[in-house]
Amino acid sequence: MFTLLSRITGLIRDQLIAATFGASALTDAYNVAFRIPNMFRRFFAEGAFSQAFVPSLGYARVQKGDEAAAQFVSQIATVLLWVLTLTCVVGVIGAPALVWLMAGGLQQNPQGYETAIGLTRWMFPYLGLISLAGLCAAVLNTYQRFAVPAMAPVLLNLSMIAAAWLLGPWLGSQGVEPIYAMAAGVLLGGVLQLGLQGWALARLGRFPDFGLTWTRFRAAYKDESTRSVLRLMLPVLFGVGVSQISLLINTQIASRLATGSVTWLSNADRLMEFPTAMLGVALGVVLTPRLSAARAAMQVEQYSAMLDWGLRLVVVLGLPCACALLLFHVPLAATLFHYGAYLATDALQTAKALQAYGVGLLGLVAIKVLASGFYANKDTSTPVKIAVVVLVVTQLLNLLWVPWLQHAGLALSIGVGALINAGGLLWVLVRRGVFVPQPGWGLFLLQVVVATALMGGVLFWANGQINWLNPEGGKALRALILAGDIVLAAAVFFGALALLRFNLKRLVRP
To answer: Tens digits of per-residue pLDDT, 153-202?
Structure first.
């Protein structure tokens, strides 16, 4: 529920930013600047850190008890705090170099380039706030407290909405570029997220004891439990580094395309976050601690059954979403973003990227589930090796598609790369015998494909009913028509499943 609310408020946030600032060199600058701390976040929060920390905390809790687990968390928190402080200082000082590495093409517009540097300096401390919030979220998830971590991103979105709506116009009246309001919104959102999750941990009696002295840091760093997490992080850091190198290259390419390309891709990515977050990220968060506990208790059959459940849920909900992005991309992009300063041409360019992303949606979602199967088993190297291959393939595809499809070619390369990545992870799990698919996959796939095809027919028909970019009845009527079409498509999909005697109840929980 809170994950859905997070995505809805995130969409409203991006709609407001698009309508207020449009797609320009300045919005490209904002998107690049916001992407920089979020890139490092993959190392210190949800990425390498959590993938090494969560399984280790699960093992410590199962094998040594809650008190030992609490001590383990405090040691890790101390090291993380010191590393983040140093990283933030270096990031603020080195903002010009970071922007040049991430999006040197912004130099085509000097104002946009300088704005990107300024915004990066203001927003980089968000990395420290959100990474510590990520630590709190990892502990809460391990103790089966999922609501607060899922709700925390809503606070960031609300802060940024308030910044765009209230602070931006005020800055403009003071002679300051209004886009700088977004930096204030990001920082406030980071403070609120950390505060909420820290409060939840304190109520649980598990708030970390941060070591603020050099002596405490040295002791925590030398602790064997800390070293074990760092050893687990090394291959994951390499893997996350591979994915971030891909992001860096793609952003660099986008910054050298037409002005607005970074913004078009960012808004398409926001729409992609609905299915990827609701399915992939949410499933990964729920499955990783449970899979870790199952492996620690040597419950091999339960471990495999949970993976099977996760993959079936990915297919039954991910396939119709992918179909919608492929066939209904223009109505979605136009209805959600074509307002104010965001022109019809901008909405169309966003739709092209959204359709290209849709090709790989199943892969993007499935990776989160499949990777959890490796991390729960403390195997962090195999996903890295597969990610290296995917990086090479993705960039080769960019050479083929970007000259032809421009920014949409970048999205298509990412989507196809995700399918290859997911296929490789699945093949390894099956080959090793770690994952044994449950009976009935053939009939299951047939039922879902038939239902999706019928739904696709409805969307294909609805796509041609009005001019989505310039609706005659106005934008409010367009939104109502879109909502009705989505409800109709969902009714056809689930109705078809019911007629095909598909048992949805078995997918409610693992």
So the answer is: 899 999 999 999 999 999 988 888 999 999 999 999 999 999 999 999 88
Residue 9's CB is within 10 A of a number of other CB atoms, namely 18
Helix residue ranges per DSSP H, 256-381? 261-275, 282-296, 300-327, 329-337, 344-358, 361-375
Cα–Cα distance, 246 to 414 (Å, whole number): 9
Is the Cα torsion angle 239, 7, 281, 44 positive or negative in sign?
Answer: positive
Distance CA 133, CA 210 (A): 13
Specify the length of the chain in residues: 510
User: How many other CB atoms sit within 10 Å of the CB of residue 479?
Assistant: 13
Question: Would residue 22 be called left, alpha or beta, if left means φ above 0 and alpha means ψ between -120 and 50 degrees?
Answer: left
Half-sphere exposure of 400 (CA within 13 A, CB side): 11
Say whether pTM exceeds 0.85.
no
In three-state secondary structure terms, 363 is helix
Q: How far apart are CA 357 and CA 337, in angstroms?
A: 17
Summarize pLDDT for 370-416 with one digit per residue, the tens: 887 787 777 777 888 898 899 899 999 999 999 999 999 999 999 99
Phi/psi of residue 378, nearest 5 degrees: 60, 30
Cα 319 to Cα 288: distance, rounded to the nearest angstrom: 23
